[in-house]
Amino acid sequence: MKIVSYKNKNFESQLEKLYNRQAVPLHVENEVKKILEDVKENGNSAIKKYALKFDNCKFARSSEFLVREEEILESEKLISGQCKKSIKKALENITVFAENRIPQPWTYSPRPGVITGERFEPLERVGVYIPGGTAPLVSTVIHTAGIAKAAGVREIVAVTPPGKDGKIHPAVLFAMKEAGVTELYKIGGVYAIGALAYGTKTIRKVEKIVGPGNAYVTAAKKLVFGEVAIDMIAGPSEIMIIADSKAEPAFIAADMLSQAEHGSGLEQAVLVTDSIDLIENVTKELESQAVSLSRNAMVKKVLSDGVFFIHVSDMSEAPEIASRYAPEHLEIMCEHPGNTAKKVRAAGAIFIGQWTPEPVGDFVAGPSHVLPTGGSSKYFSGLTVESFFRRMSIINYQKAALQSELANILCFAEMEGLDAHGRSASIRIKGKPKS
User: Is residue 64 among the annotated active site residues?
Assistant: First the structure.
C-alpha cells in the first residue's frame, strides 16, 4: 500500500505514473502474437495443443470442443433454486436496461428533396469471452450474451476455459442457456480468441468479440482487431473511491478488496481523500478484512503493489484526478456525491453514494459490467446493447435537390482531382459529356 500525498514534492509525477498505467505490457503482446499466428495457420490442431498446455484439457477429437446440449441441461439439476432465481433476476434487469437502449431507425428532411437518417441491424454472429480459471464468472455470461440476445443477435458463440476437472461450472452452463448462447466451446485464453477471430474447421469465425479477460486475452483481442470487431481493451480490474472524512472505512475497504480478489495480482484499488485519518482507518480495515477472505493469497499481492491512497489538500481536486485516472469503476462516498459525479469526465461506471457498492454493478443493477480499464475509458465506453448493432446511414435525394447542390459537388470533385466523382452527379442533370 502506498500513499501519494500533495505534501510530497513528487506528488504530480507520482500521479502521472498512476495515470499512465499499461493495460497490456509489450512482452505479453509478443507472446500472444505467436499463439495467434499458430491458431490462424493450424486451426484445430493448434487449439488441441494449447488446450492441453494451458488448461490441462486433452481433446481426442475436434468435435469435443463443443459442449453437448445434455451437459447444459444437466447443469440445471446441479445448482440450487436460489442460484437459478438470482441468475434469472439479474438477466431480467440487464435485459430491461438493454431494451431501453436499442437504437431505433430515424429519418428527417434537412432540405427540400433530401432525406437523411440512420438504420440499425443487429450483428449476426458474435463471440463472447467468459473468463474461467480462478473464478466461474457467471455474471459475465449475462452481461455479454444476455445483452447480445436483447439486441437480436442470432448466433451467440461463447468460449470459456474448463476447470481442472475438464468441465464448466454448472452455474455458468445454466446462465449460458438462459442468456441465449447458441454455441458453447470449452476453450479459453489466447487460443480461444484466435479461434473466434480466424475460425477453424470446427468453429466458424465471428463478426465481433466481446467480454473481459486477463492481460493475455486483452492483448489477443487487440491484435485480432480488424480481422473482427472488438468491444474495447479491458484488462485487470480496478476501482477508485472518492471519499471524505465522514465515509465509513469498513465500506471503503470492503469495496477495494472486492476488486483485489479477482486473481491476476495486477488489479488496482485507489482511494482519493483529504483525510489522513480515513487513510489510516481504511488501511487497518484492509488488513483485518483481508485475513478472512477465501482468496486471501490472491489479495496479498494487490495489497502490496496495487493499493494507492491519494491524499489531496481539498476534495474539489478529486473529480479532476478521477477524470485523469479514468477508472473502470468509480465510487463516490462524500458530501453531495451526485454533484461530484457530474464533474467527472471519464470513468467506466460511476457508483453514487454509500449504499451503491461496486458489486451491484457486477451482478444485478442493469448496465453491463464489461468496462474499459487501464485509463482507456478516456476513449472507450462500456459494453452496451448498441455494441451489437451495425449502423447504416440513409441518404435519399430527389432530382431538384441534386440539381441545387450540383455546383458544390462539382467543386469538391475538382478540388480533390476526382473527375469521375463529379461526372457521377453531373451526368444525371446535364447528361453525358460530348466526346
Answer: no
